[in-house]
Amino acid sequence: PKAISIYNKIIIKNPNNEKVLIDLGKIFKKIGRDNEAAQIYIKLYKLNKTKNDSYLAEAGHIFFKKGKKEAAYNAYKELIEKGYRKPDIAINMATMEFEKKKYEKVIPLLTNLDKSKIAEKEIASMLAFSYYNTDNYNFAIPHINILLEKSPSKEIVEMAAISYEKTEQLPKAISMYEKYLSLEKTAKHKKY
Fold it and tell me: Which secondary-structure segment (H or E) carries 150?
């Protein structure tokens, strides 16, 4: 578009013109040139790291959506280290840490979300597995229970049984082990 050419000429003369950069970033995003929009947003952030946090966040979201996990991670990490708290950033960052099996880093990113977010299957799952894999069974149980309500897979039932056993809640552990065995039998019958 012609507007891009005009804005680029202005930027050549005044590379730090925030208004023009903001408009150019919006145009790039609107026409699907997300990578260029992200680069503009990073430049805006670097021009004013106090005022322009939201642009770095937007660049992080673009990178995350495009599968550029390292660039997204770096953007989010910088914001989180500055104390910038937005649920979408915490969730995306936790997702990346979870994929790397860095469970101890997932927990603090997600525990400050509001209760309705924590009850969502994806978040409950990350928290259940993170607490479970760091031997924090008491904290894992509430999230495992959410998963048992939403999708009681064999793996989740087994995690519940072990968590109840590790926290000495033996009647609940026995119940979950029995449920696990019944799911095991059902799975074997389906194979034949």
Answer: helix 137-150
Of 152, 169, 161, 156, which Cα lies nearest the Cα of 127? 156
By three-state DSSP, how is residue 172 classified? helix
> How many CB atoms neighbour CB 166 within 10 A?
16
172 CB-contact burial (10 Å; exposed 0-12 / middle 13-18 / buried 19+):
middle
CB atoms within 10 A of CB 137: 20
pLDDT tens-digit map of 7-58: 889 999 999 999 999 999 999 999 999 999 999 999 999 999 989 999 999 9
Helix H or strand E segment including 61:
helix 53-65
Token pair of 179 as six digits: 């449920």
What is the Cα–Cα distance from 68 to 141, expressed in whole angstroms? 33
pTM of the entire predicted model: 0.86
Residue 85 has what pLDDT?
A: 87
From CA 138, how far away is CA 132, in angstroms rounded? 9
Residue 113: how many CB atoms within 10 A of its CB?
A: 18
